[in-house]
Specification:
By secondary structure, the protein is an alpha/beta fold. Helices cover about 25% and strands about 20% of the residues. It is built from three helices and five strands; from the N terminus they run E-E-E-H-E-H-E-H. A five-stranded mixed sheet has the order 3-2-1-4-5, with no helix packed on it. A hairpin with a 5-residue loop joins strand 2 and strand 3.
Length: about 120
């Protein structure tokens, strides 16, 4: 399964970035083989819509899932529409720890399904 995780630096042992759309880099990694590629997030400096553009760029890399800190509402809607499973990295701060937690089913899945206005969590 190819997973996308936001990184602060262009290196495997970087700390993950809480900001999905504004993260400087993404690692796209196969959670089984550990083969990976780090790409620059072309959307990080957008005035608006950084999360949407980040999702569209990741989709080109044929990802099977996203592990993230925070997902904005517009990016969340697109991820939901594209049916990309998305998980919270929670307390884990490195790619190794996140992959281990993912493989042990310890990560909480995001609920990105549309909710009527007024019922969204703050």
């Amino acid at each position: 399964m190819k997973l996308a995780i936001a990184l602060k630096e262009n290196k495997y042992d970087s700390v993950v970035d809480e900001r999905f759309g504004r993260a400087p880099y993404f690692i796209i990694i196969d959670n089984e083989t550990k083969e990976y590629e780090i790409i620059e997030n072309e959307a990080k400096d957008e005035n608006t819509g950084a999360g949407l553009k980040a999702v569209k760029n990741l989709e080109k890399h044929q990802i099977d899932g996203i592990i993230a800190g925070e997902i904005g509402p517009k990016a969340g809607e697109l991820i939901y529409d594209l049916e990309i499973p998305t998980f919270k990295f929670g307390k884990y701060e490195t790619v190794e720890k996140i992959l281990k937690a993912f493989n042990e089913n310890l990560l909480e899945k995001y609920d990105l399904s549309p909710k009527p206005m007024g019922l969204r969590k703050a």
